[in-house]
């Protein structure tokens, strides 16, 4: 097997299905937020990046922060709010940040930005109907990696946050050890070496028992993603969910279904 084989997930579904899924992300996100209470385009960082808040109510609500995938180089918050209405029905607000895409930003900078978005929720969330004491962070694919990077320790105190700033994480088809990517086509835009890849790998960081995870993969996910999920689950305080009949791109859309196993896993984290 070539280094690319386990991580070229677009090849597992084909170009037609990939394009269809990208269209579904945008269309279902637009439909989910239509008429939903919230605020769009709120700056959270000096980088100029912004976030959207959806599904707020009369009282501060628990928060699901969703970090989009796209191998750190594509997609945006506009493609990533498809769960907002389903979660609002359960009394949960959804926050969807943008982050600067690679290669315009380094992966270290992307990680910094998403952590800053969490810090923004702690400082300004109550102004927008968000409860900073009940934040769960999730993400798909590259977003799963970023979600896990908010679970590890060492970054909260410099931003003035408590160690429990993130109560739990939901990485879906995530990446937790970036060292294998150094030898793949993905490194064309990441530009990582082994040392930087290791430093950016949540699997290699000390375990934070106070931040549980529900680690999710699709039955027909890429081989590299299945392996990484199993390894992260074995090391982190977590549950492992393999969603039958789903592939790398459609599994995350189950969050738009209030009765799906994925949505139930998320609700359990609250």
Automatic annotation (TrEMBL):
Its EC number is 3.5.1.9. Pfam families: BD-FAE. Transmembrane segments: none annotated. One of its GO terms (molecular function) is arylformamidase activity. Keywords: Hydrolase. Residues 59-155 form the BD-FAE-like domain. It is an enzyme of class 3 (hydrolase). SUPFAM superfamilies: alpha/beta-Hydrolases. This is Arylformamidase. It comes from Streptosporangium saharense.
